[in-house]
């Protein structure tokens, strides 16, 4: 599948832009985790445009990270943090740290208070 110049201009949306950045970031981190490259192997995506994505590409982000985790070292030699307003896939809830925050009360905030 090759993108032509015309195709690139018709595939513009917030979701595609967000997925492009996420895919590039993950590729750089995975490349480094495989021993090639100089990425710090730490990646934080702060609330990508999940509302603009359908469930399939949103789930694919988590599937890609899970696959890289299973193919790599034990424990994984990278750390990926993603903040979202949507719950992650159920199969990831068992083995991964999920921190649910709620800014409406001090107890639900990251440091349990206003800074």
Helix/strand-derived category reads: mainly alpha
User: Tell me, what's the shape?
Assistant: globular
- The fraction of residues in strands falls at 5-15%
Query: What would you report as the Rg, rounded to the nearest angstrom?
Result: 16 Å
The description of the largest β-sheet is: 2 strands, parallel
Q: Enumerate the strands of the largest sheet in spatial order, edge to edge or round the barrel.
A: 1-2
> What percentage of residues falls in helices of 4 or more residues?
25-40%
pLDDT averaged over residues: 81
- Unreliable stretches, pLDDT < 50, 5 or more residues? 1-12
Number of strands: 2
Pattern of helices and strands: HHEHE
Description of the structure:
With 115 residues, this protein is mainly alpha-helical. 37% of the residues lie in helices and 9% in strands. It has 3 helices and 2 strands; from the N terminus they run H-H-E-H-E. It has helices spanning 5-10, 14-33, 55-71, and strands at residues 42-46, 79-83. Strands 1-2 form a two-stranded parallel sheet. Strand 1 (42-46), helix 3 and strand 2 form a beta-alpha-beta unit. It starts with a helix and ends in a 32-residue tail after the last strand.
Describe the structure in brief.
With 115 residues, this protein is mainly alpha-helical. The chain contains 3 helices and 2 strands.
Please give a handful of descriptors for the protein shown:
2 strands, single chain, disordered N terminus, mainly alpha, two-stranded parallel sheet, 115 residues
